[in-house]
């Protein structure tokens, strides 16, 4: 039996932010990325909400890769303010923090129903439509994916104007995060025809429009396509699951503090080789995932006369896309501790990450260490 759940109502396109005008007469707790305050977009949010001075409260102390302390502070503020709506606007960090705040506040203080409206300002995580929230325990150096249907936002508002200000490096990082979501979902153990359809479309859009969005951030069409692709990839992986690319990225992210999407981009070619059974550059005994990678290559009109050639073509096109976005191919340029002991520790943490459960191959600790060894 397959579960295909579409919970979040999506408002997309020009003036989508006006959806907020429907929420008047509410007490609103706003979880905003600091850039929303700096750029004064917060005023546009407040004016649309049409609420009185005492009926909104803003929490904007969001740290990238949100730590547990962020969530605890937000839960306390929700308890004191007693809102009847939470609106979160920002990148994946702000949205994830708001999801966790709402979840714990509802559980601890027995809120019957506290709706969450998510407004993403980056095109990458898909958090606005997923039941995931990734919270970092800085003291332990671990990123925990919380996964529960109750984390799904009630509504997502995709307004392209909000992403036009995303700087080049963050456009690249977040775009490659979305690509990794779609490719991992496509080969994940819970993939089905519905998730495949969304993953395929997202992959096509990202290859077509990410370079344009990167080179010309004011290109409204490229920004719009990337924003939609990111949400499609989110719906796909919410249904199908992710894989070890994300498990390793979570473990590395907590240790190295390299942006999530960039870590995914560095890992992606090596993880595809591993999942396809092509590592060591042998073309025998391919895994079933290789057929699906080759199908993606065909879809992208790349050479794919057999599954090995198709998989290699897909990898090459990802590497080309990545270098065109000025992104690193490995960890060589980073001043990080990259000893054998650290690799073993990352592998141990990645094996415990819930994303590993839906990877097409169940890895051993040494498999992950071998993937990491190829990156420096
Ligand atoms: N919940 C999920 O399903 C899911 C999926 C993937 C990743 N994540 C998590 O999401 C987080 C990463 O989110 P992200 O990649 O969106 O980055 P982010 O939210 O950390 O934001 C990165 C930077 O971009 C800035 N920013 C955001 N929007 C901007 C805009 N429009 N203009 C200018 N600057 C802007 C932020 O202030 C921040 O400095 C990680 O913690 C990752 O683990 C969650
Ligand atoms: Zn991701």
Automatic annotation (TrEMBL):
<protein>
    <submittedName>
        <fullName>Alcohol dehydrogenase</fullName>
    </submittedName>
</protein>
<dbReference type="Pfam" id="PF00465">
    <property type="entry name" value="Fe-ADH"/>
</dbReference>
<dbReference type="InterPro" id="IPR056798">
    <property type="entry name" value="ADH_Fe_C"/>
</dbReference>
<feature type="domain" description="Alcohol dehydrogenase iron-type/glycerol dehydrogenase GldA">
    <location>
        <begin position="10"/>
        <end position="160"/>
    </location>
</feature>
<dbReference type="InterPro" id="IPR039697">
    <property type="entry name" value="Alcohol_dehydrogenase_Fe"/>
</dbReference>
<dbReference type="GO" id="GO:0046872">
    <property type="term" value="F:metal ion binding"/>
</dbReference>
<dbReference type="InterPro" id="IPR001670">
    <property type="entry name" value="ADH_Fe/GldA"/>
</dbReference>
<feature type="domain" description="Fe-containing alcohol dehydrogenase-like C-terminal">
    <location>
        <begin position="171"/>
        <end position="373"/>
    </location>
</feature>
<dbReference type="GO" id="GO:0004022">
    <property type="term" value="F:alcohol dehydrogenase (NAD+) activity"/>
</dbReference>
<dbReference type="InterPro" id="IPR018211">
    <property type="entry name" value="ADH_Fe_CS"/>
</dbReference>
<dbReference type="Pfam" id="PF25137">
    <property type="entry name" value="ADH_Fe_C"/>
</dbReference>
<comment type="similarity">
    <text>Belongs to the iron-containing alcohol dehydrogenase family.</text>
</comment>
<keyword id="KW-0560">Oxidoreductase</keyword>
